[in-house]
């Protein structure tokens, strides 16, 4: 039957497929352009009737057996029988082959045609059913069901990309069934009262209905009602979809209120208005303009949008508008009106005279190339600079309409952006330039790329030299075998590969360890890397360089802090190191690593010893060098002339003292000059607590420390509260006086207070109760008006002399 359909004129098939043109664009990207004609035939069968598509599946052989011809690769076989050379890995799996090198002329291979065809047809049917449901309005009327159908279809596509063909076909058939159910639900619910939904969300998106007291998280596909508020938080975005397929995309830190949602469900005449409270929104209006009335309100600004594609931003004191449509956008502010045509913008507010401004041109996208297959999950996007751009806006979506946003990044300062952690799949991206006023220009053309991180890497075999080879000469012949058509490099330089994949190259080596890095890269940018270690060891004494942090008094005279001396340095790579005493006994042994680094712990049995370092190269040649070690076990002495005070009013502290056997002195990490073992340092203090640390260190690392805390207090004690309690007596009254205060340092024991009432004036001295940080005192007064006596002033002083007299109203 396939042969019969191959004779059908393509013009006829295309005319049959005209109603599903929209689906074809998505299907082409889902299953690859190389399958387009096969897919076209399958879709034609599905469109003409489910019975025919089932007949086609029944007549496709499950497997095809082929014998490999001379000069024929597994990719050629995949292209001939599966319609796509990139499906060569499925042939490998079907025949349980681990390497391409197992395939030779005459090898009999099984090509799994049946399961791939079934999966392809099932995916085509699933996509068509989803398209039919969406075209009928399933996104609004059967949101959960069509969402499940789409999710199942996407799962089927993922299984197809992973090579799980039977699972892909099974899940795709389930997706088609669910999509048909969504269509049935949609037709039954067309009259449901659902006006707008949250069609996409990334990050933190919240809603508040008119009856809600606070904001709450809003779920994907949630139904939005009149007077409902929606807001996005930092690094977040969402899209609101209306019944006529109009869309509003809110950027980060934005808030909008749905003011009006009305629809005549018989004629589909609709009216909607949305108020932008803050942030920015991009509007893409759909439906029949004669049946649609839509307005985006901006407080304080008159707006009338004939345009179907525009952007609005509102922040404190300023509103900005940009129009990307041939139809007009009219803006009115303070009695002045401007009309924005395509690629024009304006700003209102901030004492700016409203005027039309030309938007910047759309950037030209550079990398990755359009429709590029990528094997890494981190993708760098780049575009040409736009003159006058202060930043750029970058959008990456999982669909061509940018309904399912993956990345929405604004204020990108460079003409490139790194997108990290992408999953396998197809992505679409575009960029717009933002001028110094903050107006985004039109978006660039949309390009796409595919991430497929699980592809096969090319094979690469290094036949010579063997790893770890030791040579006495500096040139070596490299021999290897690679997959045909790949690019091979040795240490970053290209190597000529014969048509059969074999290669040879002469390579110059340097003395010591040589790491040879081989890389094979195929056309899909998949990489295989191999390495070989080769050591060149001529019979000559090797150089020895001791670690720079070793304490020494001469080039080979070292000081150790204890009975075990740690000796480090570098010499020839992969060499054996011995340390021997004057009697020839071995004190320590180690090997150098690939960089020639060594580290030994050497026991020292006397205060001073002479030892010998012996370096034995892999070829057996020995290099000898003598050195001495002296043991130093004492910490440096540290004395200060006067211990710093606990508290002071001065912001400069003079610290004097002496050190013994110290090579370094630091105060709070800052080096202090030493003169004859003495120091005199002026330290600048800050108000409040100051931590002081004096550190003295000798050459071998012994340390002496001294630490203090000095409080700088220049403020008088603070009056916290005061009260006077009157106890009436026959001839007068007893006044119980309490004053609460606080201070960073220590307050004086007494406080003087003054009390007045009528013509009575008294002074008293209160005593400090440290447990309650309050001054207390009792005063006996006589007279008729003692009840009017109140506290009028308080004098507080701390022990540093900081004082203040407080007047009490």
Describe this structure in words.
With about 800 residues, the protein is α+β, with helices and mostly antiparallel strands. It has 7 domains: about 1-60 and about 110-190, no CATH class; about 195-360, Sandwich (Jelly Rolls), CATH 2.60.120; about 365-450, Immunoglobulins (Immunoglobulin-like), CATH 2.60.40; about 460-535, Immunoglobulin-like, CATH 2.60.40; about 545-630, Immunoglobulins (Immunoglobulin-like); about 635-710, Immunoglobulins (Immunoglobulin-like, Sandwich); about 720-805, Immunoglobulin-like. The protein is about 15% helix and about 45% strand. It contains 11 helices and 59 strands. Strands 3, 4, 5, 6, 7, 8, 9, 10, 11, 12, 14, 15, 18 and 19 form a 14-stranded mixed sheet that branches. Strands 53-54-57-56-55-58-59 form a 7-stranded antiparallel sheet, with no helix packed on it. A 6-stranded mixed sheet has the order 37-38-44-43-40-41, with no helix packed on it. It is flat.
Task: Give a brief outline of the structure.
This protein has 809 residues and is an alpha+beta fold. The chain is built from eleven helices and 59 strands.
Instruction: Please give the count of helices.
Output: 11
- Tell me the domain tally: 7
Structural class, by secondary structure, is: alpha+beta
Give the amount of beta strand, in percent: 35-45%
Give average pLDDT, whole number.
84
Largest sheet: 14 strands, mixed
Per the principal axes of the C-alpha atoms, what is the gross shape? flat
How much helix, percentage-wise, in residues? 10-25%
What is the rounded Rg? 42 Å
Strand segment tally: 59
What is the CATH top level name of the largest domain? Mainly Beta
Q: What is the architecture of the largest domain at the second tier of CATH?
A: Sandwich
Enumerate the spans where pLDDT stays under 50 for 5 or more consecutive residues.
Answer: 1-58
Do you know the CATH topology of the largest domain? Jelly Rolls
Termini Cα gap: 105 Å
């Amino acid at each position: 039957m396939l042969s019969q359909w191959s004779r059908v004129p393509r013009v006829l098939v295309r005319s049959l497929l005209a109603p599903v043109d929209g689906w074809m664009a998505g299907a082409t990207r889902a299953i690859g352009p190389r399958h387009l004609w096969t897919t076209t035939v399958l879709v034609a069968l599905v469109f003409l009737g489910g019975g025919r598509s089932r007949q086609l599946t029944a007549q496709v052989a499950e497997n095809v057996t082929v014998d490999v011809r001379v000069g024929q690769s597994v990719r050629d076989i995949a292209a001939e029988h599966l319609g796509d050379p990139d499906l060569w890995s499925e042939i490998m799996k079907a025949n349980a082959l681990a390497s391409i090198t197992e395939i030779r002329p005459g090898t009999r291979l099984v090509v799994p045609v049946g399961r791939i065809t079934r999966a392809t047809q099932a995916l085509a049917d699933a996509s068509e059913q989803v398209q039919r449901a969406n075209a009928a309005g399933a996104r609004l009327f059967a949101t959960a069901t069509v969402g499940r159908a789409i999710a199942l279809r996407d799962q089927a596509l993922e299984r197809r990309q992973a090579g799980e063909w039977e699972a892909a076909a099974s899940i795709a058939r389930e997706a088609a069934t669910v999509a048909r159910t969504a269509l049935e639900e949609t037709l039954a619910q067309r009259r449901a009262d659902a006006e707008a939904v949250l069609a996409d969300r990334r990050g933190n998106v919240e809603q508040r209905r008119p009856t809600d007291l606070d904001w709450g998280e809003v779920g994907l596909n949630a139904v939005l009602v009149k007077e409902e508020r929606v807001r996005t938080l930092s690094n977040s975005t969402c899209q609101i979809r209306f019944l006529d397929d109009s869309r509003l995309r809110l950027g980060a830190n934005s808030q909008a209120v749905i003011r009006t949602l009305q629809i005549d469900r018989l004629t589909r005449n609709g009216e909607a208005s949305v108020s932008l409270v803050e942030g920015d929104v991009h509007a893409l209006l759909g439906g029949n303009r004669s049946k649609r009335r839509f307005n985006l309100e901006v407080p304080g600004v008159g707006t009338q949008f004939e345009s179907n594609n525009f952007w609005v931003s509102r922040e404190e004191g300023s509103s900005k508008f940009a129009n990307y449509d041939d139809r007009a956008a009219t803006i009115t502010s303070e009695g002045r009106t401007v009309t924005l045509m395509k690629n024009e913008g304006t700003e209102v507010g901030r004492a700016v005279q409203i005027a039309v401004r030309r938007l910047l041109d759309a950037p030209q996208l550079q990398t990755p190339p359009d429709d590029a297959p990528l094997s890494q999950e981190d993708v760098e996007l780049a575009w040409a600079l736009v003159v006058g751009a202060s930043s750029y806006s970058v959008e990456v979506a999982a669909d061509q309409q940018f309904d399912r946003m993956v990345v929405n990044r604004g204020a990108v300062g460079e003409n490139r952006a790194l997108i990290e952690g992408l999953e396998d799949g197809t992505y679409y991206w575009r960029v717009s330039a933002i001028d110094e006023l903050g107006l985004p220009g039109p978006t660039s053309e949309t390009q796409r790329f595919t991430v497929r991180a699980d592809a096969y890497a090319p094979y690469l075999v290094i036949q010579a030299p063997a790893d770890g080879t030791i040579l006495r000469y500096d040139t070596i012949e490299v021999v290897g075998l690679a997959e045909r058509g790949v690019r091979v490099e040795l240490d970053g330089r290209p190597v000529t590969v014969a048509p059969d994949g074999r290669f040879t190259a002469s390579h110059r080596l340097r003395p010591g360890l040589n790491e040879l890095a081989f890389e094979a890269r195929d056309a899909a940018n998949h990489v295989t890397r191999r390495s070989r270690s080769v050591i060149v060891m001529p019979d000559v004494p090797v150089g020895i360089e001791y670690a720079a942090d070793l304490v020494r008094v001469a080039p080979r005279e070292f000081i150790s802090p204890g009975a075990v001396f740690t000796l480090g340095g570098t010499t020839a790579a992969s060499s054996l190191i011995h340390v021997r005493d004057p009697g020839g006994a071995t004190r320590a042994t180690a090997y150098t690593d690939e960089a020639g680094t060594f580290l030994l712990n050497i026991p020292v049995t006397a205060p001073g010893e002479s030892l010998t370092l012996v370096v034995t190269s892999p070829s057996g040649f020995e290099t000898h060098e003598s050195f001495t070690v002296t043991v130093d076990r004492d910490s440096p002495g540290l004395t200060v002339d006067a211990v710093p005070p606990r508290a002071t009013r001065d912001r400069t502290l003079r610290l004097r003292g002496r050190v013994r056997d110290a090579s370094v002195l630091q105060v709070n990490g800052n080096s202090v000059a030493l003169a004859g073992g003495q120091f005199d340092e002026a330290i600048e203090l800050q108000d409040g607590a100051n931590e002081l640390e004096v550190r003295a260190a000798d050459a071998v690392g012994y340390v002496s420390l001294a630490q203090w805390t000095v409080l700088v207090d220049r403020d008088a004690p603070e009056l916290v509260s005061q009260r006077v309690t009157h106890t009436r007596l026959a001839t007068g009254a007893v006044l119980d006086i309490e004053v609460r205060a606080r201070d960073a340092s220590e307050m004086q024991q007494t406080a003087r207070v003054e009390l007045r009432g009528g013509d009575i004036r008294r002074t008293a001295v209160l005593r400090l109760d440290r447990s309650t940080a309050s001054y207390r005192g009792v005063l006996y007064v006589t007279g008729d008006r003692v009840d009017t006596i109140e506290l009028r002033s308080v004098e507080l002083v701390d022990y540093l002399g900081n004082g203040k007299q407080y007047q009490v109203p």
